[in-house]
């Protein structure tokens, strides 16, 4: 990926004592994924108290023990078929992936699959049986009051979400969705909705203004109003959630709260994705979190706060698809935040307007090597701390070493007109990239949101474009 010069500044996800919370999804299609303890260290340092895992990874569940973080574990789409056909397999899954970790690991929900109705229709017949078997296994273990079972579905199950008051589920899935809703009602659980205004806007062919998708206020002549109820919608996010509530009501069900299990906005896209920008992502995430903080629901359900999980913790650079698919992350893998954030327990905002110069995520390794060698040589940067055995040597990657060298050069020479470019491999950020004992130049007077005491996981040594070990190329001559 090649992010723009302006890094996204958002408020990260935290729990609010007033009731509604914002959590984070943790996807793992990430090169050099940090170790589970390192991931938890990032979560704790940033006061993030709710996470959703897409599986039931043992390393993560162990690392989350005694952290107090509420955990939603996932039954993968591949596991549903076996569980839905066998009560004993469901019981074994609960014993192995839930009961074995409670109470130390605060597991509070199970997400059965991900968008099953729209992605793997052949599994749909056993989806509700799988949910029932899992719930019965929880009952047998006396865990059903602590751990809720549900299944995340995409907005695609509602073919015409606007106006919300006339929204209904796709009729071909009515029977299954009714069974899901009946299960949720009977078990006092909640409907899991993946709601992405980014996709709603980009696929809308200009029907709705961008400001509406980004939670920005609209002038009176452009306000979005449901013609049937005359309800005003300040955001596409609220309209999407309300469309789901009306769809539930259309099946004569009520009293089932909605939790948004995924939402967000990509901060980088390809040439044909003009709306995936840092500015748009910054605006969306800031405004979305402020929206959730007001602890209210959409117009039709004002007393139902919209608990929400942001997508996602790291950029999943290994995911297939367009550039935007790989660029939703909130954190770099070395533990530093891509964005500034405010803590839910205070008004302190981490970071300020001072700039650091860092290597762009996924910049070309060959160009990073050239830039690193120049900065440490002709550029005059002090690169002693990125030598083996020194505080900033690990992770031993071109991105990490170049970030330190670029920043050291930039801090020394910026006043003389130096820029943060390095052949397009660098960008500025207001976020302090320091971590552990590795302190970046210019950080002494800046409040950092880096993880206190967090040491990044050791990444494999960088590989040169010629395929050899990059270690010797990092030495300063």
Would you mind describing this structure in some detail?
The chain is α/β, with parallel strands linked by helices and 477 residues long. It folds into 2 domains: 305 residues, Glycosidases (TIM Barrel), CATH 3.20.20; 119 residues, no CATH class. 29% of the residues lie in helices and 11% in strands. The chain has 13 helices and 13 strands. The protein has a 9-stranded parallel beta sheet. Strands 8-9 form a two-stranded antiparallel ribbon. Strands 12-13 form a two-stranded antiparallel ribbon. The protein is globular. The relative contact order is 0.14. The N terminus and C terminus are likely disordered. It is a lipid-anchor; GPI-anchor. It is found in: Cell membrane.
Q: How many DSSP H or I helices?
A: 13
Q: Gyration radius, to the nearest Å?
A: 23 Å
CATH-defined topology of the largest domain: TIM Barrel
Which percent bin holds the helix content?
25-40%
Strand order of the largest sheet: 5-4-3-2-1-11-10-7-6
Shape call: globular
Task: Please identify the top-level CATH class of the largest domain.
Answer: Alpha Beta
Class by SSE composition: alpha/beta
Distance between termini? Answer: 30 Å
CATH superfamily of the largest domain: Glycosidases
Beta percentage is 5-15%
Q: Give the integer mean of the pLDDT values.
A: 84
The ordered H/E elements are: EHEHEHHEHHEEHEHHEEHEHEEHHE
How many beta-strand elements? 13
List keywords for this structure.
glucan endo-1,3-beta-D-glucosidase, hydrolase, 13 helices, disordered C terminus, 477 residues, two-stranded antiparallel ribbon, 11% strand, 2 domains, nine-stranded parallel beta sheet, lipoprotein, TIM Barrel, 29% helix, disordered N terminus, GH, alpha/beta
